[in-house]
Every structure is written in structure tokens, then in C-alpha cells.
Specification:
By secondary structure, the protein is α+β, with helices and mostly antiparallel strands. The chain has helices spanning 3-25, 32-35, 100-111, 162-188, 229-236, 252-256, 261-267, 287-300, and strands spanning 30-31, 39-40, 43-44, 53-54, 64-66, 81-82, 88-91, 115-122, 125-138, 143-147, 204-208, 224-228, 240-242, 248-250. The chain has 2 domains: 3-183, PUA domain-like (Roll); 191-300, no CATH class. It holds the Pfam family HNH_2.
């Protein structure tokens, strides 16, 4: 191994260890300033830069890629999306194949170098997905294919069918959206339980209104509610229901029970209360999903 290869390997391993620590500390999104507080060989090394492709001077291949944060209603500067093969498409820097950033991406692809991919949760806050690999380049579309899956070492033994490619696309898209579901839901609800307003992140879940296996159970904020663990469990067990008008109901047999303070204050007093809602209309729970889930609660009751 040459000195340059050794530096490349050590830097990437150090970066992943750095992101492991930050991910444990900031499970719902890492501030960019904290991500960039990365020291390698005694030197601070930025991992997130404008416009989004990072190649430190001591490397020849790209180290990280980033999708820019787009405020609601604004047009994204780069249209990163999923291709028919199920892989994320990451746009070149501009349209010049010889641009230094594009050469750095190409070098990472040729070397099969693992990168970190930063996806915005909100302005200046990211989820880190790693390792990811650049596996193909489309010069006509000015983009690279990014593999977010686990199995990146071996090519398929035979060409995939269109159905298999669509399935792979769905799995990859689901993986990315599931990673982003919790931080986006908790940020929309200001890290508070939508029922009791508890504000301790470690005690909160991002609950689905309609479950994963449902046709409309997508991991998107309008299908999510921030709930503390007791209310999440009660919701899943149909002890608590939420009407389409966002009023909470508690099952009649639970209301009639006599027990300790958790039952009284934690469940029974929720009956008739109204959900704490996100400030943004677009993040608020979808009434049609609430209605369908409420009918399930009514049937169970």
C-alpha cells in the first residue's frame, strides 16, 4: 500500500468513526458545524462544503457528497432522484466532465471508495448515510449512480429483470425514507409528543398513522406523529384513537378502569384533548389517513 492509499484509508475510517459518534449523540440530525469539527492527523478537515462534493487536498477521490437543503416550495438546485435500477442519481458539478469535482467522483467510482452521503433534515442539519458507493456514470445525464444498499461487492450473476429493478428501486427508496422519517417527524413536532407534549427525545418515537405494510403507509411526515413510548404503544394497541379532526379518544373500557396515576394521568386524561400540531400545514397529519386509522380503532373498541 502506498502512502497515499494509506492516508485515504485512514481518513475514511476516521471519518466513519467520527460519524458513528455523532450519530449516537444526534440521532435526529447532526448540525453541519459539528460534522465539520473533524480532526484528522491533527488538522481540522471539513466534511460538508458548498456546493456538495468534498475532496480534501490529500486525496484524489471524493470523500463525501451532499444533497442541498431546499426550503418548502423552492426549486432544488440539483435534481437528485432514483433511477430505474433502484439507485440514487447524484448530479455532476455543472456539465463539464473534466471539472475537478466530477473527476474526484469518477475516481471514487473507479476505486470503489466508500463515501459518506449527507441528506438534509432541515437547514444546516443532516443525516449521514454511509458507506455509499458510486457505481456507474451517465455522461449524457451528467450524473452518477449511488448504491445505498449493503450488497455492493459482487455484481449480479445475471441481468436483472424490469420487475427486479423496480423492486430494488422501491427497497432503496424505502431505506432512505425510513432513515429520514424519525428526524423529520420529530423536528416537525418540535421534539414533543403530539399527545402529552413530553419533550425528551430519548423517550419519543416517530409513530406511523398507517403502518409500513399498508398501501399508504409511506414514511412521510403527514403519515407520522411524534409520540412518547407509552402513547405509541397505546395507539398501536388501539387503546387510544385519534379522530380525523385530531381529537384524542380513549377506549371506553380503559376509561372505566381504576388504577394508579399512570392510567389516570397518562391515558384517561388524554380523552377529548387535541393533538399538538406542527407549525407547517404541510407537515400536519393527513386527515384521510387519520380517518382510516380511526375506523380501525373504532372496530377494535
Amino acid at each position: 500500500m502506498t502512502a497515499a492509499q494509506d492516508t485515504d484509508t485512514r481518513l475514511r475510517l476516521a471519518m466513519f468513526a467520527h460519524l458513528d459518534r455523532l450519530g449516537a449523540k444526534y440521532p435526529d440530525g447532526i448540525p453541519s458545524a459539528v460534522i465539520n469539527d473533524f480532526i484528522f492527523d491533527g488538522v481540522q478537515t471539513r466534511l460538508i462544503v458548498q456546493p456538495g462534493i468534498r475532496k480534501p487536498a490529500q486525496l484524489s477521490a471524493a470523500l463525501t457528497i451532499r444533497t442541498a437543503y431546499t426550503p418548502p416550495g423552492a426549486a432544488a438546485p440539483y435534481d437528485d432522484q432514483f433511477g430505474p435500477d433502484g439507485r440514487l442519481r447524484y448530479k455532476w458539478r455543472g456539465t463539464d466532465p473534466a471539472h475537478a469535482d466530477n473527476r474526484a467522483l469518477r475516481e471514487a467510482m473507479v476505486r470503489r471508495s466508500p463515501l459518506a452521503y449527507f441528506v438534509p433534515v432541515s437547514k444546516g442539519v443532516y443525516q449521514a448515510i454511509y458507506p455509499v458507493f458510486l457505481v456507474e456514470e451517465d455522461p449524457e445525464a451528467h450524473e452518477f449512480a449511488v448504491d445505498l444498499n449493503e450488497n455492493t461487492d459482487e455484481p449480479p450473476e445475471q441481468e436483472e429483470t424490469p420487475l427486479e429493478r423496480r423492486y430494488a428501486r422501491r427497497l432503496t427508496s424505502q431505506r432512505l425514507h425510513q432513515i429520514m422519517f424519525r428526524p423529520k417527524v420529530l423536528r416537525a413536532y418540535e421534539t414533543r409528543c403530539a399527545l402529552c407534549r413530553l419533550g425528551h427525545a430519548s423517550l419519543l418515537d416517530a409513530a406511523h398513522i398507517l403502518p409500513d405494510h399498508h398501501q399508504r403507509g409511506e414514511p412521510i411526515v403527514p403519515n407520522g406523529l411524534t409520540m412518547c413510548k407509552i402513547h405509541h404503544a397505546a395507539y398501536d394497541a388501539n387503546i387510544i384513537g385519534i379522530r380525523p379532526d385530531r381529537v384524542v379518544e380513549v377506549r371506553e373500557d380503559i376509561l372505566a378502569e381504576v388504577d394508579g396515576p399512570m392510567l389516570r394521568h397518562g391515558l384517561q386524561e388524554m380523552h377529548g384533548t387535541t393533538l399538538f400540531l406542527p407549525r407547517s400545514q404541510r407537515d400536519r397529519p393527513d386527515p384521510s389517513r387519520l380517518e382510516e386509522r380511526y375506523e380501525q380503532f373504532r372496530s377494535a373498541a
